[in-house]
TrEMBL record:
Naturally occurring in which organism (per UniProt): Collinsella aerofaciens
Keyword Transmembrane helix: yes
Membrane-spanning ranges: 12-30, 81-101, 107-128, 137-154, 160-179, 191-215, 235-254, 296-313, 325-345, 357-377, 389-411, 774-795
InterPro entries: Uncharacterised_YfhO
Coiled coil residues, start to end: none
Protein name in the entry: YfhO family protein
């Protein structure tokens, strides 16, 4: 047995020190900021609170065999979950969530964040040592600066993005090897892993590598000389390495592309300049980041930044390398300032939140430039003394202190206003309520949704976390057609990428099978469930809720819903289902009683036997982020007509006589004016017509015996040949058999629903979901891996024969 040599042991000890120091610094930050588990400030903030914690809970259920990795009905009527997995959950660190209890997932997130920071420190220290042959103290200093740069600290709330910083140094060294040694395999494998762990940050990284490899090429030819043949050879090798990396990851990349390519809302580009000169300057300074301003996260340690700048004026470094460094620096800074560049970096889409997503690239490039500067310094006899540990160690201490202070200031902005105690209490109550509801019914199909949320009226993904079917969905990886349908019917803003069940809408709830609503206000048409009143949440049952399928006319197939507002679209939807025109809603002519710049008011009379509703039709110039204050009689909604709070709102219960009501809109809190064309429309749901329609549809319900993620089974007896409408979004991944014969699923209602052709008599329906592209992608990955192994063996054999 060969003993490890002294050099190997020193390297192991060094990387262990990097790993341990980063975790210790992270823990010290948590203790100083009183962040859980060292205080009551919750580590959950922004989307980590609104989305990821529920995604982790779902993934834990998948790992424990309680949920399906391929498909879920727990979001927006139903969705292919491969995009959810590959974007948010594919990191191998997430496998650790199975080791944590369901009520300790905040601790899990904290733990994997610490581990990721330690791994970033190791990979970046390894990179600068290998690339620039630096001493261990120098490598420690630079890698610590990269690990705790402002971008990393501010984006710990995005744990899915952090793995990229572990792999980026390895990819960069792969570029160095490719240029100087013509070796491709490291870049191939690192690219594949990058895509496997998070395709979104992998896209950003690959785009960056296309620029970075040019810098390495310029640096190389400055020493060895330029030739077009050399350039073509390296360009082809680089393109081949990236292509092979994508092919190697095809088992997850191909189904991801198919899952995410259905489209969705595309936001318009904003102003050309994303920030001000003042905020841009603040982005380069320690302790100056402001979370509610457009401050780019450029700061990455004073020493490393000064070293990086010094490369530009170091005359011992080739002028070509210095010019290339300056050009790339300008491009990376501009990418966080100019909207068109940000649009390109973010996948040809306008990012929704989290400004300056690509700032980590500038921090890494500063790591490269600083390493290059130290390498040049080491090679200058007059300046070698500055490279000695006795000089670097005080600089390291200064760097650690500055990074800690900067991170502490940022944490004091991020982890406030939401306590871990409040989070634990909310999760416990939600779990208790859902469990109680599920224990009360033995039905195979029903949906539950709630208007109460964890905090700040954010759309939630509790259905994924707790295992129930809901309409709400706050995710970048849902079924866009289903979300578009829900929003067009009045649940959230038209054009939003997600939806929130902010208030029950009786007619649509019934059609989509929402049987239970957890709501702050008693919804008309629902009945209070007094038997579960002790759960601390008010639960209401919808007696009109239909099952997953009803017989419909052929008008519903491949149809587009028409109407200028959600009420008219619901009328059109029910008319197409029934094959005749129905007036489920009738318009109420409201009288405008006040109209000025700060307040608009209407009086509306709701007919007897009807439920009164209103909906604010947003002006096209209002956008998603210009709300108003809505007051209905004595009820006030602080932010209405924006994002997830642009909903049909109830204004009156059904009564035996007409009733008058007042509605007004005003300036929302934090705004100085309001959009002048956001007029509400008033409609009445005629209960007699509604009940007659529901009774008719209940005569032809399809009640499945099995309704679970990725599978629907049941017997359906059709009175005549016809069309069975399913409240399941159309998706090419469904494989359907009727009486053992393969049957095509047909799109319905803008592809937000689907339908099946039925023959008269008994029909045995079996629907199973298979992820589109999964088998083809796996075949490509295996073939690529086999080809790489064969090529490696052939090269080794050829070398041994020389």
């Amino acid at each position: 047995m060969t003993r490890p040599n002294n050099s190997t042991l020193k390297n192991v000890a060094f990387y262990a020190a990097c790993f341990t120091f980063s975790i210790a610094l992270f823990v010290a930050l948590a203790e100083a900021g009183h962040v859980y588990p060292f205080g009551d400030n919750s580590f959950l903030t922004n989307d980590l609170k609104y989305q990821y914690i529920d995604f982790f809970a779902w993934f834990r259920r998948v790992l424990l065999g309680e949920a399906n990795l391929r498909y879920s009905f727990s979001q927006g009527l139903g969705m292919n979950t491969w995009g959810l997995y590959s974007y948010y959950l594919a990191s191998p660190f997430n496998l650790l969530c199975a080791l944590f209890p369901a009520d300790k997932l905040t601790l899990f997130v904290f733990a994997i964040t610490a581990l990721k920071l330690g791994c970033i420190h190791i990979s970046s220290a390894w990179y600068v040592q290998k690339r620039f042959d630096l001493s261990k103290p120098a490598a420690f200093l630079l890698s610590l600066s990269f690990t705790f740069c402002s971008w990393t600290i501010s984006n710990l709330r995005n744990p899915l993005w952090i793995d990229c910083l572990i792999l980026l140094p390895i990819c960069a060294y792969g570029c160095y090897e490719l240029i100087r040694k013509q070796r491709m395999i490291r870049l191939v494998i690192a690219t594949a892993l990058n895509v496997m762990f998070c395709w979104y940050t992998a896209y950003i990284s690959i785009l960056f590598l296309c620029i970075f490899v040019l810098v390495e090429f310029v640096d190389y030819v400055a020493e060895e000389g330029f030739s077009w043949k050399l350039m073509l050879d390296r360009a082809l090798r680089f393109a081949g390495a990236i292509a092979l990396g994508l092919l190697l990851s095809a088992w997850t990349f191909l189904p991801t592309i198919l899952a995410m390519s259905k489209g969705g809302p595309v936001l318009a580009l904003g102003p050309l300049l994303k920030t001000s000169l003042k905020s841009l300057i603040r982005g380069f300074l320690p302790c100056m980041w402001v979370s509610n301003e457009s401050t780019p996260q450029f700061y990455c340690g004073i020493v490393m930044m000064l070293l990086a700048v010094s490369l530009l004026v170091n005359r011992t470094v080739s002028i070509k390398t210095r010019i290339a460094t300056l050009v790339v620096t300008i491009i990376l800074v501009a990418s966080s300032v100019l909207s068109p560049l940000e649009y390109i970096w973010c996948g040809m889409r306008v990012p929704n939140g989290f400004y300056s997503r690509t700032a980590f690239l500038l921090s890494f490039f500063a790591l490269w430039a600083a390493g290059h500067a130290l390498q040049a310094l080491k090679n200058q006899p007059k300046l070698r003394q500055a490279y000695r540990p006795v000089v670097i160690m005080p600089l390291l201490a200064l760097t650690a202190i500055a990074l800690f202070a900067n991170a502490h200031v940022m944490w004091n902005q991020l982890y406030t206003g939401y306590s871990e105690k409040a989070n634990s209490a909310y999760v416990a109550t939600a779990t208790d309520t859902i469990t109680t509801i599920q224990d009360q019914t033995s039905a195979s199909f029903y949906r539950i949704d709630r208007t109460t949320t964890r905090v700040d009226s954010a759309a939630l993904n509790e259905g994924l976390a707790l295992g129930y079917n809901q309409l709400s969905s706050y995710s970048s990886a849902n079924n866009p057609q289903a979300i578009a349908l829900l929003n067009s019917l009045g649940y959230s803003s038209v054009g939003e990428f997600s939806t929130r069940y902010a208030e029950p809408i009786l007619a649509v709830d019934a059609l989509l099978g929402v049987k239970y609503a957890i709501a702050e206000h008693a919804p008309s048409g629902y009945a209070a469930m007094t038997e579960i009143a002790d759960t601390a949440s008010a639960v209401y049952e919808n007696p009109y809720a239909l099952s997953v399928g009803v017989m419909a006319s052929n008008d519903i197939q491949n149809c587009t819903l028409k109407g200028e507002n959600p009420f008219e679209k619901q009328n059109d939807l029910y008319s197409k289902i029934l094959g005749r025109e129905v007036m489920l809603y009738t318009k109420i002519e409201a009288k405008n009683t006040e109209d000025d710049e700060n307040l608009r008011q209407w009086n509306a009379t709701v007919p007897s036997g009807s439920i009164g509703y209103l909906y604010i039709n947003k002006d096209a110039t209002a956008g998603s982020y210009w709300p108003v204050t809505l007051t209905i009689d004595q009820r006030t909604i602080g932010n209405e007509a924006w994002r997830f709070d642009n909903n049909i709102r109830q204004i009156a219960d059904a009564s035996d006589s007409p009733s008058q009501h007042t509605a007004s809109i005003g300036v929302a809190e934090g705004y100085t004016d309001m959009p002048q064309d956001n007029d509400p429309v008033f409609y009445a749901l005629n209960l007699d017509v509604f009940e007659q329609i529901i009774n008719e549809l209940k005569m032809s319900e399809f009640v499945p015996t099995v309704f679970e993620d990725g599978r629907i089974e049941g017997e359906y007896t059709a009175k005549d040949d016809g069309n069975l409408l399913l409240s399941v979004p159309y998706d090419e991944g469904w494989n359907v058999t009727v009486n053992g014969t393969a049957t095509e699923l047909t799109p319905a209602a803008d592809k937000g629903l689907s339908s099946l052709n039925m023959q008269k008599g008994a029909n045995r329906i079996v629907m199973t979901y298979k992820t589109p592209g999964a088998l083809a992608g796996l075949a490509v990955s295996l073939a690529t891996a086999a080809a790489l192994v064969a090529a490696g063996l052939y090269a080794r054999h050829k070398k041994s024969r020389r």
